[in-house]
Amino acid sequence: MAAADHGIRNRLRVGGAGLDANFASSPCAAESDDAPYVRQAIASRQVSDDGLDAEHPQACSGSGESQPATKMTMRMAGTAMLAHAKLSRRKRAPNAFETALQEDTFLRTPPESDDKEEKQSCATSSARATQCKPKFGEVQFRSGLMTKACIVGPGSDPEKFYELIMREPTMWDLQGPRLILSIVGGAGEMDLDPAVEAHFCEGLVRAAKQTCGWIVTGGTASGVMDLVGKAMHMHDKRRQVPCIGITTFGSLKTPWRDIADLMDPVPDAAVVEAPLPAKEQNPDDVGLAALQEHHTHCVMVDVGKKGRDAFGKEVDFREKLESFVATGLTSSIQARRLTRGTSENLPVRGASETSHDGSISPHRRHAPSLAKIQKCDSKDLQERDRVLRVMILVNGGPVSFNLVKGAIEHGCPVVICNKSGRAADFIASLKSGNLTDYEEAWNTHMTAPPDVKMGLAGVPGGPEALKRIVESSVDLLRVRGSLLTIYTTDDRLEDVILGAVVQNFLADEELADDQLINALKRAMELAVQWGCEKRYVELARNLVNKLGFQDAAHWLLQKIVNDWSESGPELGSLMRWLLSTHGDALRKIEIANLRPRKLSFSDVELILAPGEKTSYAHLFVWLMENKAPVAVTDVLWLHLDYPAHGALAAAAICRQAGERMMSQGTYEDSVIGQRLTNAGNRYETMAVQLLKSLDRVDPLEYVFRRSWRWGNHHLISLAHHLECKEFVSQSFYNSAVDLLWVTPTPFAVFAFDKDPKRRQKNKVTAPYHEILLGLVFWKPERLPLRDLYSVPRVKAMTHALSRFVFVFLYSYYVIFARDATKNVLSLFLLLWGVSLGLVEALQITARGGIWAYLNMWNVLDLVLIAALLLGSFAFWFLTPTGLVSTRAVNAIHSLNLLPCYVRLLQLFELSEYFGTLLFTMFGMAQDTTHFLVLLGIISLGFSCSMTPILYHDSWQQGISWGFWAIFGGVELGDSGRIPQEELPMVLQGCTSFLQYFLIIASNVLLVNLLIAMLNDTYQENKERSRREWAFNRVDAVLEFASPEAHILPPPLDLWVSVQTLMNWNKPVSEKDSQNSCKVTKVVPLGPHEVEIHIEVQGGDFDAADESQLSWEESQNDSSSPSSSSDSNGRVKQASVSRLGDWQPVPAGSDGEQPHAGVLCYKNVPLTMPLRFAYGKKELGYKAVPIHLDEDSWTRSLTGGEKKHIAFIQQEVVAQIDADQEPEQRSEAVVMETNQKMGLCLDEITRLVKQVKDLEQKMDAQDKRHAEMHRELLELRVAAKE
After folding, report:
1. Cα–Cα distances in Å, from 336 out to 99, 168, 345, 550?
2. Are 487 and 418 in contact (CB under 8 A)?
3. DSSP 8-state assignment for residue 360
């Protein structure tokens, strides 16, 4: 029995394969129909033949005679053990894998033998039949690595092998490749240069990892196969890339063949251990190989030969398999894979199948419906599954020439690794022209002993065959040009591989246009994944030639934002080529044809010129919204007409996207959100650096130049509107705001006058008391009264005085007014409220909506105006009728005084001292709000627990008394309180303790917490209060500089507000009731250039070119430029030119359709009062005064200014990138360290899991061993009885 124990234990690991083979070869196998069940019992129950034979050596004799009943035969044991299983098991339909096995799809070639008697014996024929079965399993190496392996025959169907073994989830479960890198070369005689080896290995693994590729080699631990395996271990420790070795079974050493034969012929793969190195090598194994441990999969092709005769016999199977995977994945196979769960009963990846007993297979779920399968476009399936294939020759001997020839015959490009020795150098030297004589090349490079022995004459076909290989002129070649590409260490391996692939399909004459387009797209994707910048332009140019620019650009842009968003800086060269060669066509691409179809950035309205479909600005915003690579957006930013506007918009887009990502809460989203926020900061820094670097353009003038493309904003308003606080805090921005604060409107006309003396005179910097006392009017060089009161600084003063007067009168009205005085003040305040309401309506209209208008101060304005109007309406109309009491109206006005006084605080924002204090106070108020939440919870807890104990009527007492504990007010009143002596002693002590603890919590803990919070807020705001004040101050300055802030303060501007809202303030130059000209807009284009937009009604359209723009100046005024004057020299006129043709506009109320046009006047002193008259003076149109509608000009940049700004843009981008390079290197080091730590943790986890799995298997084997011994003992006892 000890021998049986030993035999069973030794064969538990291999799944009973040895017993199955011996039993199949014995005469007992043919004695009964139960033989299949016996073999299945032996395989499933792990019974060992050694155990039985050791105890009963005569258990099964070759004579076929029956043994005594007391002797246990193999047949009797197997039949008894499976008696119950045979009766209870239901038959089921064989799956695809079992069907393939029954059809001998993967049948191995039987071994050759010279013994005829042995061939004729029954036992030998059964053994040979068993040896012809394919085997499947896993090889466990001494390092702990596992390699999935199989033994198949050379005639195996590549389609079924790919479908049922490589892709099947229960087998190898490989994902389909996008690229096959077939590595061929020498198995020995290799002496690679370390530099060549390192360069090749790193590039090979990097190319495969980035493209979900497969690497296919010979699979043995020798030559180039061992080199590739070690490279995979070094650069792909997680084994993400399938490295498949295909070798012949007979070329392996005897121990390796023995352990491989122990694998199972069933899908439940057995695990076999790699053999230990032999102390004494078998003479028959000299020159044979072992499996390479770093390959993930291994295919052993059994051709029936052993030893050196088996070398190279796997080439045909390997070529067929690679060719099928590369070109055989047609739509029929894909559709069959989708439908095989229903029609062919094949195992589907992720499909669902129900067995006969109603259970669902764990590998078959979510089966696609037949309707969905029928909707699959076969063309799309075929295009999606096209696989690129490249053969790489490293070193190599004479056999390599046949491999290269076979690859070329199938149209597979071949990359020759130069300086790797032997065959590779032989082909490279002849291909590059370094050598022209084949004999000389052979003697130079083919120096290995086998090569010298063979000689050039020994090559099949001789020099002619080699010449045809070098010239790529083998049979069946259907391409124009060579399929051979030389690779050296001066090139990136990815570039060489991609170049070989592109050269292959560009030269393929049989490739259809749609196939070529798809191949170009795939190559473009590979180029981006590999970072092959040299190939971008070539591939993009070919795509444009085949698809047309519109379709090619659409595809490239979609790829940039969807699949290539994480690409490196080299992708900018592609965008640079598109802009340089197809810039005009790129402007015609409509955003509506892209995905998403519209821009979601609504903070700034992007404007298109008439006839434009899109612009660089629109495309730039679309790329920013869809998170395009920074390299792409930077290139497009360099081509914007107003780059500073674009940079600020990009900063806002990135920050908004970053806030949305970080609000989702996950760690990954937080990382992405922080990256977007950093990108926003980068673009704002670019805008700052651009403005700081301007030297040929005045920065102050540039920030006030409006861009009609970007919502007609200048940089002052745009930066504030987008909340770019870093840009707002810059010195040039504050200088511009200071200049705007003291300059009359129109700002640009006065601030940027060509005469420095006049420019200085236009600034109003006098103290406020001089303006209030009128001292500025006594100065000899003073501004006109209208210009003086149009200065934002002066308007702020007059509006502040108006606000103080309003609050004073409102307070007097609420507190002291009686009788007639109250009636008069109520009427006056009603008009004042209407005036304030009209101003707010103008601001809402100017900002384009209520949401852009709302902020804290405007909300206060709406509240106080609504309360004032409501109280006044109730006072005049509801109180006399008795519907509302006088006390209620007074209460409304009294409560309204609070927002009125709070609203006065905005005026102090203009002061840096008070503004910083206000900002700190608002921060403390926010902290106090958070503090009140804690106070409320604690106070409610104590008051709710103590009130029912201490008071008879809890409702009357209430629970608010606990809130006053923070001020020490916790004395409990006697009214309604239960006397202390009536409470039990426990409750008296409890309430006293709670009252004491409430005082401690409120007066000590919470108060000190509030003090600490306020102190932290003060210190924090002290650091950034200057920046926040500068930002908030701009809001006030822009409000008073806007046209909505009238020169006259409320309520004096009531009529002006009504005219503006009703559009009654547009000047009209009339001739009669039928002929008139309305001035709709007056826009300055410079300090002395103006553009007038008109609408002409009537028939005098030709008179527009003779329209008159005049002004009046004194004799000693030299402020105006040169112009024509009349006879007395006081009235002057400017020359006029009409821009464009007349454009019809919607008809007016009288039914007549006016026509719009634009007139341009030059050499106009815009600081003077202007008068406009349509046509000649003889036509009779009256002159009307006009005023500028905008405070800055929109003149386009000159050619010199554009070149200067473009040069600065490039310097800014280079500087920003240089500053961020150290940070990027640090991030790369951190990421690499994290990756290595992750690899180590994964390796430790894998090893721990593997140890646990082995322990579980050993425990299970021990249990099965004990159970089998028990059953054998029972059977032995039963047999003896």
Report:
1. 16, 14, 10, 36
2. yes
3. B
| pLDDT surpassing 80 at residue 266 | no
pLDDT digits (tens, 9 = 90+) for 354-371: 333 333 333 333 333 323
The pLDDT value given to residue 441: 85
Distance (Å, whole) CA 1109 – CA 811: 50
Whole-angstrom distance, CA of residue 1080 vs CA of residue 1029: 37
SS3 406: helix
Return the higher-pLDDT residue of 295 and 55.
Answer: 295
C-alpha dist (Å) from residue 919 to 200, 210, 902, 931: 63, 52, 14, 19
Residue 567 pLDDT exceeds 80: no
What is the tens place of the pLDDT at every residue in 149-205?
998 888 888 888 888 888 888 788 888 888 899 999 887 767 777 888 888 888 888
Q: Say how many residues make up the chain.
A: 1281
Q: Which pair of tokens denotes residue 254?
A: 């005897």
Cα 424–chain centre separation:
42
Helical spans, DSSP H, in 766-885 = 768-773, 785-789, 792-815, 819-847, 850-853, 856-873
Distance CA 1048, CA 299 (A): 92
Contact of 269 with 200, CB cutoff 8 Å: no
Looking at residue 1131, its pLDDT comes to 56
Residue among 866, 867, 856 nearest 905 (CA): 856
Q: Read off the tokens for 540.
A: 């993009």
Residue scoring higher pLDDT (670 or 458): 670
d(CA 656, CA 679): 11
Can you tell me which residue has the tokens 């009161």?
Answer: 789
Determine which helix (DSSP H) or strand (DSSP E) holds 234, and give its type and residue range. helix 223-235
Query: Could you tell me whether strands 297-301 and 388-394 are parallel, antiparallel, or unpaired per DSSP bridges?
Result: unpaired
For residue 20, give both structure tokens.
């199955």
Give the three-class secondary structure for 1111. Answer: strand
Question: Which is nearest to 71 in space by CA: 83, 91, 53?
Answer: 53
Is this prediction's pTM over 0.85? no
Encode 587-655 in three state secondary structure.
CCCCHHHCCCCCCCCCCCCECCCCCCCCCHHHHHHHHHHCCCCHHHHHHHHCCCCCHHHHHHHHHHHHH
What pLDDT sits at residue 86?
42
Q: What pLDDT was estimated at residue 1140?
A: 54
Q: What strands, in cross-sheet order, belong to the sheet with 1124-1125?
A: 1124-1125, 1131-1133, 1108-1112, 1170-1173, 1184-1186
**Backbone phi and psi for residue 1132, each to the nearest 5 degrees, phi listed first:** -120, 155
Whether the per-residue pLDDT at 106 is higher than 80: the answer is no
**386 in helix, strand or coil?**
coil
